[in-house]
Amino acid sequence: MASSTSSVITLRINGEKYTLPVDHRTTLLDALRERLDLTGTKKGCDQGQCGACTVLLDGRRSVACLQLAVAAEGREITTIEGVADGDRLHPVQQAFLDLDGFQCGYCTPGQICSAIGMIEEHAAGWPSAVTEDVHPEAGPPPLTTREIRERMSGNLCRCAAYVAIVDAVARAAEARPDEERVHPATGAEEVVA
Ligand code: FES
Ligand code: FES
């Protein structure tokens, strides 16, 4: 029931609609885990520092512990439960599996969602803090180990499986087909080689 401190909201998650009452202070992470039983998204620090809770909002990566559930209404939310295509794993999931990009696995859902968003950001030509040529006409920089490490630096792994994580992200990025892509910020269509 709606009140001055709560509202009934409808969240669209992995293509499904979920309607639920929430206290306005409820984070998206707590709504997913505690209210909707979508426990694939993990809680690490609960303060935006570790990346364990990373999900995709309209295709962009976002830490769910810093996002209020009420503010996620109207967004397309993708969690780790929604990245596979039926029985077919997402290429990033498959690469993590093939290259042992995890140990305990606690950070892995966040790493995978972050990598999915990161690969799209890179393909759209977004620079990172270590990109040397940031002119738009330069296009996406080579996705070197340094670039991947920087772009994935918001996702911590307590098991320190970083070497294999970087290899898995690189393999998944290489397997991404060249096609018309939409810039995630501007919405402009572009062709990325
Ligand atoms: S639990 Fe959200 S960033 Fe750590
Ligand atoms: S695999 Fe254990 S925290 Fe990353």
From TrEMBL:
Boundaries of every 2Fe-2S ferredoxin-type domain copy: 7-83
To which pathway does this protein belong? Alkaloid degradation; nicotine degradation
Q: Where is this region: Disordered?
A: 174-193
- Which keywords appear in this protein's UniProt record, sorted alphabetically? 2Fe-2S, Iron, Iron-sulfur, Metal-binding, Oxidoreductase
A Pfam cross-reference name: Fer2
Q: Does the keyword Coiled coil apply?
A: no
Which InterPro entries does this one have?
2Fe-2S-bd (IPR002888), 2Fe-2S-bd_dom_sf (IPR036884), 2Fe-2S_ferredoxin-like_sf (IPR036010), 2Fe-2S_ferredoxin-type (IPR001041), 2Fe2S_fd_BS (IPR006058), Aldehyde_Oxdr_Iron-Sulfur (IPR052914), Beta-grasp_dom_sf (IPR012675)
Recorded GO MF terms: 2 iron, 2 sulfur cluster binding; metal ion binding; oxidoreductase activity, acting on the aldehyde or oxo group of donors
Q: Where is the composition biased (Basic and acidic residues)?
A: 174-183
Q: Which residues form a coiled coil?
A: none
Checking PROSITE patterns in the record gives:
2FE2S_FER_1, 2FE2S_FER_2
SUPFAM superfamilies in UniProt: 2Fe-2S ferredoxin-like (SSF54292), CO dehydrogenase ISP C-domain like (SSF47741)
Which PANTHER family does the record match to this protein? OXIDOREDUCTASE WITH IRON-SULFUR SUBUNIT, OXIDOREDUCTASE, IRON-SULPHUR BINDING SUBUNIT-RELATED-RELATED
Q: What is this protein called?
A: (2Fe-2S)-binding protein
Give the species.
Streptomyces dangxiongensis
